[in-house]
Amino acid sequence: MNVIIIGGGVIGTVLTHLFSLRGVNVTLINSGLQKPRFPLIHSKLLRFPEDIRLARISEDVYMELSRELRVDVLRPMESITIIPEACYNDALHIMSMWYEVGAKVRVISDVHEYGLKRVNDQEIYIFSTNGDNFVNYLSLMNRVHKIDGVNYINGTATIKFSDHDVRVLINDNELKGDYVILASGAWNSIMIRNAGLNVPLLPYKCQAAAFISRGISTIVYDYVLNIYVRPLGLRIDNALNKLGLSIIVGGDGNSKVTEPGRDRGVDREFLNEVRGKVRARLGRVLLIGSRFGYCEITPDMRPVVGTVGSENLLLIGGFNGYGAEVGPALALAVVNYVISGSWPDYARPYLIDRFGNNWPSTWDIGVEAHELCV
Fold it and tell me: Taking every annotated instance into account, which residue ranges of this chain make up the domain FAD dependent oxidoreductase (predicted)?
């Protein structure tokens, strides 16, 4: 069997490894337009039971890749979730689901020792172990080049339909596989639209800022200030921690609907807002950099997977910034579908069929599916 994967990012990388380990011939096409520069977060501390299940299966996928590739894909991290006191009762039910997938959580009374400040008297701190990991995606991506039987192609692909079949055009060549899988992130909807079809996906600009701060070694999910803060996750962290310092990355989830390439630079309003919120939680910080990329969402803010236009064209996307949490599980579902012809039960809530043939041409970016206290 021959499979063509368009997209060499987070999901395309996992798909390539999983197919290769199962003896499937893979052509991986990578445009190189976007890739992570530092480890990504895998968290089981999500809101919906279906997503939590995906995150747990994704953890198993990462562990499989660790064993087979003999590389440490996951690095366990501690985290602190900050919620308003008013939503604590709702959070208790969610915390019970976190326990069921192996996370150990407890309420703590003070966060000063973790380098954080109390913003008001109506906030609760939930400390977690075995709920979060950093994912070494750079190592996974680098190893794709070395897999026997993988045809790795650099370039920008397009797709076209011919007699109920799908072809891939890349570098003046036409490729045909038993299956073609679109895993191009924010470029998915553009590629499909250029082929004459529509899908319930909308690209948007996602942004983050980097700061030097006091030493921070935990991931912080702050639902009082509506920001996240995390260590960089690189070797420089150890050296800076000896000095009582950290490079941290933060964002606030505020996004701007736009197609890739139409916007330049990080928005000043974003930087000002995030800097103010990070200072409120951490104290003195120094902004040292920022970055933007492109993500994509569906109308219900949850991922999507399924066939599009042809039985041998598969789409996987709409991860809305939490692809490292749940993406590997849906990638495994795609692999199972290609090999066995059926979707596993855990993937069915995410099938594209749930939208029917009726969805808006555009929509607002609403509450992300993994956010608490909404």
Answer: 3-335
